[in-house]
Write a structure and sequence with these properties.
The complex is a heterodimer of chains A (about 170) and B (about 625). By secondary structure, chain A is of the alpha/beta class. Chain A has a single domain, classed as Glutaredoxin (3-Layer(aba) Sandwich). Chain A has five helices and seven strands; from the N terminus they run αββαβαβαβββα. A seven-stranded mixed beta sheet of chain A has the order 2-1-5-4-3-6-7. The N and C termini of chain A lie far apart (about 75 Å). Chain B is an alpha+beta fold. Classes of the chains: A alpha/beta (about 170), B alpha+beta (about 625). At the A-B interface, helix 1 and helix 3 of A face helix 11, helix 12 and strand 1 of B.
Chain lengths: ~170, ~625
């Protein structure tokens, strides 16, 4: 009796695994965060870079548009997109938050001293864990949200001229 | 032309395989125990044909015959000859043909090398093996045909992915396939052993060399892959717990467990069904690995072109293998006598098996967990190195200690004789570890434990070696493999703890100081090669304290076919450490991103693995000598 039960369990186990594999075949396995556009961010908590405070949902609701940019001093392409961020800093409708990703404080400050600080607020994510909540899987990445915390646009990789114009259009259209 | 010839040969092969199965079943029916001459001939013919079809494909690649889709998609006229040849198995279709060669060749060789064994066991093995051959042959013919024609014939091919154009990678797949597919023969033999009632000691003797052969190739294949990853991928590591790497590691655990258990089955006639389960498990894991890798169900750094229809076919075949072998196993299963003394070699070998199964389950879970979460909860997760490191590393400490104790015990029953000796060894290991701490500065508690336990294994294996030199029946293979395994873990531990890595941006003419090192970016040259252009950086590394002065030349290669950028690391391999430098361009900037690494004992990690595998070879030759 006992052996019979074991036999059933083994067979059912294998059938279960096989059917999961079967369904899995039909799913798209490529990780893609573009689907996040249109979704709402919730329960945001990111540490402020230098002060002991936390940036949360309420903070982000204050401005009409916010661009959250994930960057690090060790990231080459971040250097490249920096000039565009500085241009965006002039926009009145846009609040720029930089999230310093898995970086050392000194290096980050050196980077900003050298190239200028475009951010209205600077946050940090030393372990890279909070960024996951934003669907970040590599840097640089930027997400544009509105005051309802809805993700309007997502930019994977360094921002370029086109992205810059797109952001300007979006924030000035309404 | 070649395409037609290839297709005809494959069809002919299917017919031969069917007739081998038919003739063999007839023999079983009339209880004819003799393996007749026509079976030998057919098997030989089968192997010859499949090898010749492989050569036809090789000719297709060498002569750049783009009338075949496989050649068109994976080759290019400008490719160096060696990579044209290795391109044959560097793709899905060609590699399946390699699978078939190994399946057929092993089938024939097993038949020839087991002449002294009962006919029905050999015939059953042949039937099962030929069912496997037929399954893969159908897959090849109807889904992944390497000889599919294309018309109109393209003038030029698409080229082979440049990162695959590498000597280590040219030999990596064939080695791994020999391991993977080599396990098919003891899968077939295990099923045959149950069907033909050929259990125990004799069965163990019939498969032990085949297990060693496949284990050896698996080990060396994994090594070649790791070396390739280290040289080519440019992040300085050699193992990333990537699903494809895991797929090669899973059968390795099962094989390692298997040949340890086989020792017990051969010596003491115990664990028969456990050995059978391990035989089946090994091959099933190989097919599962193939499924995971080739179906595209997992997202991995290995970019195999994936096609869901392939996945469905392999999954179908896999289910057939699992369910039929489980069915036969249940039908024949008997609870055996497992009464063994706690302090005996048998127990320690069983302990080894439990560890192997633990590793196997951990890695298997980590690998397929993302599929389950996605299917069941629609969440995408990724299981990375932190999971494996936290689960596996602490257990390695225990494993190493058992591995040191095990070989010292005797069969059947042992007494704790040299307890004090072990204490001495342990004290010695702790002392050496203490010196390492002083020399290299501190590291974590877990690393201390890993290094102490690996030293413990090294010392006890050395003692084992000395004492066994005095006896006549020395078991060098075990001593070599266990000793080298100790060294492997020790070097990986030291490497992990004392590597350093610095990332920074430099432009030509600039210098960067890191600790005692100065990295100077001297100049940049553009060079032209046959199938690529390269931007070669010239870096000078200085260390005044150590009087070190070397130049490293990392490259950024621009391949035309297909047009791709690759980053070539520049590595200076030394006896004690490697210096590793990569550079990558930053768009629209004069700066280059530089990664400079110092990696101690890299060479010794490779050497340890080679020695581990050498232990297996020693055993194989010893077994062969015993027979003759």
């Amino acid at each position: 009796m006992k052996i019979k039960l074991v036999k059933y369990i083994v067979v059912i186990f294998f059938l279960f695994v096989i059917s999961v594999f079967f369904i899995g075949l039909k799913k798209d396995s490529i990780y893609n965060t573009q689907g996040l556009v249109g979704q709402k961010l919730t329960e945001i908590r990111i540490d402020h870079f230098s002060e002991k405070k936390i940036i949360n949902d309420e903070d982000l609701k204050k401005s009409k548009f916010t661009l959250i940019n994930f960057w690090a001093s060790w990231c080459g392409p971040c250097r490249e997109e920096h000039s565009f961020l500085i241009k965006l800093n002039e926009e009145k409708n846009l609040r720029l938050i930089g999230v310093n990703f898995k970086d050392k404080k000194n290096n980050a400050l050196k980077f900003l001293n050298e190239l200028g600080n475009p951010y209205d607020d600077l946050a940090k994510d030393e372990l890279g864990k909070h960024s996951i909540g934003f669907g970040i899987y590599g840097i640089p990445e930027s997400i544009l949200i509105n005051n309802n915390l809805i993700i309007i646009k997502k930019f994977v990789g360094p921002l370029n001229e086109n992205d810059l114009n797109l952001i300007k259009e979006t924030i000035n259209s309404k | 032309m070649l395409s037609n010839l290839g297709n005809i040969i494959l069809f002919l092969n299917a017919l031969i395989t069917l007739s081998i199965i038919y003739i063999s079943i007839q023999k079983i029916k009339i209880k004819d125990q003799v393996v007749s001459k026509n079976i030998y001939q057919l098997s030989l013919f089968q192997s010859t044909l499949i090898i010749s079809s492989f050569f036809i494909l090789v000719i297709g690649f060498v002569t750049s015959d783009f009338s075949m889709i496989t050649v068109y998609q994976n080759s290019h006229t400008l490719k160096p000859l060696i990579y044209k040849i290795s391109g044959t198995w560097g793709n899905h279709e060609g590699s399946l043909l390699l699978w078939l060669i190994i399946l057929s060749l092993f089938s024939f060789l097993f038949l020839v090398y087991n002449k002294s064994r009962p006919g029905n066991f050999r015939i059953y093995t042949l039937i099962v093996q030929n069912i496997l051959i037929l399954g893969f042959l159908f897959f090849l013919l109807f889904n992944s045909n390497p000889f599919s024609a294309i018309s109109p014939i393209p003038k030029e091919g698409l080229g082979l992915n440049p990162i695959l154009q590498d000597p280590a990678l040219a030999i990596h797949p064939p080695l791994l396939y020999l391991g993977f597919v080599g396990s098919s023969i003891y899968f077939s033999a295990a099923i045959a052993s149950m069907l033909a009632n050929y259990p125990g000691k004799l069965f163990a003797q019939s498969i032990k060399n085949w297990v060693l052969i496949s284990w050896w190739f698996q080990t060396v294949g994994i090594l070649a892959g790791s070396i390739w990853a280290y040289y080519e991928l440019g992040w300085g590591g050699f193992w990333f717990w990537d699903p494809v790497e895991n797929a090669s590691l899973l059968p390795w655990f099962a094989m390692t467990a298997l040949f340890h258990s086989l020792l017990v089955l051969e010596k003491r006639n115990l664990f028969y069904f456990w050995v059978i389960i391990l035989c089946i498990l090994t091959f099933i894991l190989c097919v599962t690995g193939t499924f995971l890798v080739r179906s595209g169900i997992l997202n991995s750094v290995h970019t195999f072109a994936s096609d869901p229809s392939r996945g469905i076919y392999i999954l179908f075949f896999l289910s057939f293998l699992i369910l039929s072998s489980v069915f036969i196993l249940f039908k024949k299963f008997q609870t055996g006598n497992y009464k063994i003394n706690t302090n005996s070699k048998e127990t320690y070998i069983l302990v080894n098996n439990w560890f192997m199964i633990f590793y196997l389950i951990t890695v298997l879970l980590g690998t397929i967990y993302p599929i389950f979460t996605e299917v069941l909860t629609n969440h995408k997760v990724s299981v990375g190195p932190p999971f494996y490191n936290t689960v596996i590393i602490p257990i390695v400490v225990l494993f190493l200690i058992f591995m040191s104790l095990g070989p010292r015990t005797k069969w059947i029953k042992d007494r704790f004789q040299d307890f004090f000796l072990l204490i001495k060894l342990l004290t010695g290991s702790i002392l050496v570890n203490f010196f390492i701490v002083i020399f290299f500065k501190s590291y974590s508690l877990l690393s201390n434990l890993i290094i102490i336990s690996s030293l413990f294994l090294i010392f006890s294996s050395l003692l084992d070696l000395i004492s066994s030199l005095k006896r006549t029946n020395t078991d060098f293979s075990r001593v070599i493999s266990h000793l080298s395994f100790g060294f492997l873990i020790l070097f990986i531990g030291l490497n992990h703890n004392f590597s350093f890595e610095k990332d920074f941006n430099l432009k030509v003419g600039e210098k960067k100081k890191i600790d005692d090192y100065t990295v100077e970016f001297e100049d940049l040259k553009l060079e032209n090669f046959k199938n690529y252009k390269a931007v070669v950086g010239n870096f000078k590394i200085d260390n005044n304290k150590k009087k070190l002065n070397l130049s490293l030349n990392p490259e950024i290669r621009i391949y035309q076919q297909p047009s791709t950028l690759t980053y070539e690391a520049s590595i200076r391999t030394g006896i004690l450490k490697d210096y590793y430098l990569t550079m990558s361009n930053i768009d629209r900037s004069d700066y280059y991103n530089i990664k400079f690494q110092k990696k101690p004992f890299m060479l010794w990690i490779w050497v340890s693995v080679i020695l581990i595998s050498a232990g297996g070879l020693v055993r194989l030759f010893k077994n062969e000598n015993k027979i003759s």
